[in-house]
Amino acid sequence: ALVCESRIKKHNATTSALCRKRNPFPIPMILNITPVPKPRMVRSDAWKKRKCVLKYWEYKDGLNILANKASYKIGNTLENVTFVIPVPPSWSKKRKTAMIGAPHTQKPDLDNLIKAFQDCLCREDSHVHTINNVRKTWGTTGQIIISPSVDPASDE
Predict the structure, then answer these.
(1) Low-confidence winner among 8-12, 70-74, 75-79 (lowest mean pLDDT)
(2) Which of 89, 81, 92, 99 has its CA nearest to residue 33?
(3) Per-residue confidence (pLDDT) for residue 8, from 0 to 100
(4) Would you call the peptide bond into 24 cis, given omega within 30 degrees of 0 as the criterion?
(5) pTM reported for the whole predicted model
(6) Collapsing DSSP states into helix, strand and coil, what is residue 39?
(7) 3-class DSSP state for residue 143?
(8) Mean pLDDT, all residues of the chain
């Protein structure tokens, strides 16, 4: 029985290691933080603390903490990321309900959210050569959802 158990454990460890290499997140990873766009930095930001810059630095610190806890790192491809923007509290209940999950077509721009996300998690983001399936939607709370990528070779 011990021999069988050790083989099973060894097989499971090998299999899970291979699965982690192909697909490190078998279920979507949710980072509970409201996405913030990358602001245009100017020289005076060193002494003139603008609200958008302070908000960005707070976001950067929070995102780094959450990503480190989840052991998330950006590879050469950024894919399957959803930025969930919270609906404004001033909207009616009917409008909020209708907009949950709908595409977010207002400011902030998606490219600025991507820039902020990459700048927070990469020292040098020039190695990212492909961005696939990145979107922004409305939600009840701010989140960043990172879904596992589907490897066509593993479906066989």
Answers:
(1) 8-12
(2) 81
(3) 38
(4) no
(5) 0.72
(6) coil
(7) strand
(8) 77
Distance CA 20, CA 18 (A): 5
Q: Comparing 121 with 143, which gets the higher pLDDT?
A: 143
- In the numeric block, the tokens 């959210």 are attached to 113
- What's the rounded mean pLDDT across residues 23-34? 74
Angle between helices 51-69 and 110-121 (to 10 degrees): 60
On whether the CB atoms of residues 76 and 128 are closer than 8 A, the answer is yes
144 to 95, 113, 139: CA distances (angstroms): 22, 10, 11
* Identity of the amino acid at 87: V
Cα–Cα distance measured from residue 8 to residue 92, given in angstroms and rounded to the nearest whole number: 56
For residue 59 the two structure tokens come to: 């976001």
Residue 57 is encoded by which pair of tokens? 């630095």
For residues 117 and 144, the answer to whether their CB atoms sit within 8 Å is: yes
DSSP H or E stretch at residue 5: helix 2-22
Percent helix, strand and coil across the chain, each to the nearest 5: 45, 20, 35
**Higher pLDDT among residues 77 and 146, named by residue:** 146
Residue 126 has a pLDDT of: 77
- Residue 145, Cβ neighbours under 10 Å: how many? 16
